[in-house]
Amino acid sequence: MSRSQESASALTRRTAIAAAGTAGLSAALAACGGSGDSGPSGDSPSGGGSAGAALGKASEIPVGGGKIFGDEQVVVTQPEKGQFKAFSSICTHRQCQVASVGDGTINCNCHGSRFSIEDGSVQAPPATRPLPEKKIEVTGGQVKLV
Predict the structure, then answer these.
(1) Which pTM was predicted?
(2) Among 79, 77, 104, 78, which residue's Cα sits nearest to residue 88?
(3) Confidence (pLDDT) at 31
(4) CB 69 within 8 A of CB 145
(5) Distance CA 37, CA 129 (A)
(6) Mean pLDDT, range 119-124, rounded to an integer
(7) How far apart are CA 18 and CA 20, in angstroms?
(8) Among residues 55, 65, 129, 139, which is most buried (max CB within 10 A)?
(9) From the centroid of its chain, how far is CA 137?
(10) Rounded CA separation 66/80 (Å)
(11) Distance between CA atoms of 143 and 138, rounded to whole angstroms?
(12) For residue 52, what pLDDT is reported?
């Protein structure tokens, strides 16, 4: 093998090894996810709950607070007496189920994000997007998803 053939062969091997290493690193980084507000697949959370589902009694929702309906992935709040709001209970940061409602916020214990009970807006990061609003109706003292 001539000196130029050895040099070309070494360069080709280096290029192949570097490309394989880069591909492996890219795959590992993709699997770990970024620091954004999307789920493992990159999709935004949908926040379940089926239309027409009865969530509970309106009297169970405290004024200035709310109640989490985990199975339906919905949190219902009552910012002011008689004013009911509903949001996905899935945090927009890393898709954890929110854990509590108090002091005017919906709280995610996974990373500390806090959302307004009035409009779902972010009150404390790391989340950067609000909780998606859900449609509800209150009839006969019952709260239902629409």
Answers:
(1) 0.68
(2) 77
(3) 36
(4) no
(5) 7
(6) 98
(7) 5
(8) 55
(9) 24
(10) 11
(11) 5
(12) 78
